[in-house]
């Protein structure tokens, strides 16, 4: 009987010890799962130091060159830019502009199918994965025939040129081979692309010879004028 009481007391004591050990172990596991204030601070610090998206700069050195019904737009490369956008409008207001060419990887684009003689405004901007730069300043350009850009006027092939003008190539005149460009007499170098060469020399490709005009050496020289 005495042995049974001792056994009972020992068993009860063992159960109490086991319960306390188990309780302490659970509390420790819970405390291990809870981040310390210092660890929480570190997490917040990591979130606050994420890199800020960097937008590319506005393209620089933009040029526009008119053609008969086109405008050629060119610009300089921008660091961190993946693509470029070209926008244009008949009004000097970027809100009315339309984009052409989509995402352009090159440093130039030709806007086509424009109205000859109408003035257009062009904007360029760069873009990357973070977004687009602001628009560049508007550039004004008026497509025109090469004849008009050289100071000439277009006429039908069978019609005489006005006084003070001479017959030349069609130079993008509307009727093509049935038309001609009448350029002003006088100054060879006054015509865009015109220049004087020796009389027995060959004019460069894309130009043709037309008399001596006002070349400084007179009949010993000839004037080379663009024909394309």
In short:
With 228 residues, the chain is α+β, with helices and mostly antiparallel strands. It has helices at 2-33, 37-48, 146-149; strands at 63-66, 71-74, 83-89, 98-104, 108-111, 120-128, 131-132, 139-141, 153-156, 165-168, 179-184, 195-198, 207-209, 221-226.
Average pLDDT reading = 82
How far apart, in Å, are the first and last alpha carbons?
127 Å
Question: Helix share of residues?
Answer: 10-25%
Q: How is the main sheet built?
A: 5 strands, antiparallel
- Sheet/helix structural class: alpha+beta
Quaternary structure classification: single chain
Number of separate helices: 3
Return Rg in Å: 41 Å
Would you report the number of β strands? 14
The outline comes out as rod-shaped
**Order of SSEs:** HHEEEEEEEEHEEEEEE
Low-confidence stretches: none
Number of domains: 2
What percent of residues are in strands? 25-35%
Note down, in words, how this protein is organized.
This protein folds into two domains: 63-141, Immunoglobulins (Immunoglobulin-like); 146-226, no CATH class. The longest helix is centred in the N-terminal third of the chain and has 32 residues, at 2-33. The chain has helices at residues 2-33, 37-48, 146-149; strands spanning 63-66, 71-74, 83-89, 98-104, 108-111, 120-128, 131-132, 139-141, 153-156, 165-168, 179-184, 195-198, 207-209, 221-226. The termini are far apart. With 228 residues, the chain is α+β, with helices and mostly antiparallel strands. A hairpin with an 8-residue loop joins strand 3 (83-89) and strand 4 (98-104). The chain contains three helices and 14 strands.
